Task: inverse folding
């Protein structure tokens, strides 16, 4: 409630500041107020709207999130810089070059001065309230070392050896459930100690409903397999949560999905080329795109009951990781992608897994604080939960990216090639979470791959909108680390000159030499 009150106060004060600045600049003109006010009042209202929108995007009014005056001051400068850019573009588009430069840009500069003065006195009062004796600490917040993230191997309970072989699930799977699916049986046998799992602790179904699962005692199973594809579950979230609840820690969950790739192969095997393209496109739009649209998805699920939904491999495995399972093996069999997972914890409490075209990602920022980076989606939904899995399965290629990263969509590769997906990061820059030039903002998993000395060095600076990577184009992960180390140590000694130097190098590398990221 306190934060909301201070937010409203800052908003009202800002409106007051830009109004004072506007009328003061008109007052400075030699002609009377009655001449200039009717001429500039409409453009001023449009300017005020632009100013407020830029301020909202920059989160400038959330004053309590700023620890030091210098941080808020930089936020004011960034917002003013954006407003000047928009005003110049608007003047060029509408041909308003006759407007007084004093009134237009004087209003921006004077209102920025009023804001900065208010910010300074706010932090003076805040400093006195908390009795900060060190004036240097008032302006610059000392960094702390970001704790190293441990990814220790999980110790799963080992099932005890059964006295009677017929008590295990192996015989039942081989002779009953998988009697006609020998390849699937061998896949399970090679990945799971089925001979040691008691049949009383297991359940095998072929259903797309939750009825049989809801009657099971929580935490009573060590093995659960459903031979029905997950594409047909209306409430996929409830299904995964229920399976997680029924399993013991370390218990196995085996299932299958008709992934988009498998679906593609199905259409092109069954139909000739022209017809296959048409049918596959219609199917993908109806069963993949429509279920993700806010209004149409209600109608879609009412008609289809959720059956035959098109799911990607990345989204399915990402969902499994999100709901507390660790993916241990996958294999394509019988026009299905079968997966083997183990319960490693409870479903994630993250209330906003990525799903739409515009995503917000958690990254490691300055002083080890969590920041959010905005991007246009280039990966399948829930892909962020697969980063560790992808790293375990694949190596890093040149440029520090993952080899054969199946999470990236076809149109996502196009967006990445043209850097269109990076454009929303400007919001993070306006908010003050990113500097103009700086090392990439890393995920927690990727950050943990760095040596500890580089982790300590990295968190001393804000990540950047323009990475120094393009200045020398390192070829592998080790070279990326050394490139960043060189840049950061140089920036530590000569902060301003280094920023200008690398800004020039990156622009030259991209525009002249055609440097690109994969």
Result:
């Amino acid at each position: 409630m306190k934060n909301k009150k201070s937010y409203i106060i800052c908003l009202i004060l800002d409106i007051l500041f830009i109004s004072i600045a506007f009328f003061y600049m008109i007052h400075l003109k030699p002609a009377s107020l009655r001449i200039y006010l009717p001429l500039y009042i409409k453009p001023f209202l449009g300017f005020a709207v632009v100013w407020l929108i830029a301020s909202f995007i920059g989160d400038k009014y959330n004053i309590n999130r700023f620890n030091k005056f210098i941080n808020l001051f930089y936020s004011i400068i960034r917002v003013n810089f954006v407003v000047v850019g928009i005003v110049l573009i608007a003047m060029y588009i509408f041909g308003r070059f006759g407007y007084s430069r004093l009134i237009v840009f004087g209003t921006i500069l004077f209102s920025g001065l009023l804001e900065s003065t208010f910010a300074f006195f706010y932090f003076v009062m805040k400093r006195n309230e908390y009795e900060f004796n060190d004036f240097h600490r008032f302006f610059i917040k000392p960094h702390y070392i970001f704790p190293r993230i441990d990814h220790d191997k999980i110790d799963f309970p080992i099932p005890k050896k059964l006295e009677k072989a017929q008590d295990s699930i192996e015989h039942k799977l081989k002779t009953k459930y998988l009697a006609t699916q020998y390849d699937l049986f061998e896949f399970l046998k090679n990945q799971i100690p089925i001979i040691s799992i008691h049949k009383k602790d297991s359940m095998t179904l072929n259903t797309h409903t939750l009825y049989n699962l809801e009657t099971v005692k929580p935490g009573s199973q060590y093995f659960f397999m459903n031979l029905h594809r997950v594409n047909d579950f209306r409430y996929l979230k409830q299904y995964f949560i229920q399976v997680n609840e029924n399993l013991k820690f370390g218990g196995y969950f085996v299932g299958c999905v008709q992934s988009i790739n498998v679906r593609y192969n199905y259409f092109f095997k069954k139909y000739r080329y022209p017809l296959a393209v048409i049918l596959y496109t219609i199917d993908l739009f109806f069963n993949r795109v429509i279920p993700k649209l806010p209004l149409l998805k209600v109608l879609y699920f009412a008609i289809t009951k959720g059956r035959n939904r098109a799911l990607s491999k990345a989204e399915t495995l990402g969902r499994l990781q999100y709901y507390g399972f660790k993916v241990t093996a996958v294999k394509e069999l019988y026009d299905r992608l079968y997966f083997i997972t183990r319960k490693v914890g409870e479903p994630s409490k993250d209330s906003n897994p990525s799903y739409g075209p515009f995503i917000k990602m958690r990254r490691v920022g300055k002083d080890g604080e969590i920041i959010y980076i905005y991007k246009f989606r280039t990966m399948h939904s829930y892909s962020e939960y697969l980063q560790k899995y992808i790293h375990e399965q694949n190596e890093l290629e040149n440029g520090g990216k993952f080899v054969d990263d199946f999470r990236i969509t076809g149109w996502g590769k196009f967006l990445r090639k043209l850097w269109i997906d990076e454009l929303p990061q400007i919001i993070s820059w306006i908010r003050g979470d990113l500097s103009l030039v700086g090392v990439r903002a890393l995920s927690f998993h990727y950050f943990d791959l760095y040596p500890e000395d580089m982790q300590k060095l990295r968190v001393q600076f804000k990540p950047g909108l323009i990475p120094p990577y393009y200045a020398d184009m390192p070829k592998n992960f080790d070279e990326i680390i050394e490139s960043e180390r060189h840049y950061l140590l140089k920036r530590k000694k000569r902060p301003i000159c280094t920023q200008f130097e690398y800004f020039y190098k990156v622009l030259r590398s991209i525009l002249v030499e055609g440097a690109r990221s994969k």
About this structure: The chain has three domains: 2-139, 166-343, 358-511. The longest helix spans residues 101-130.
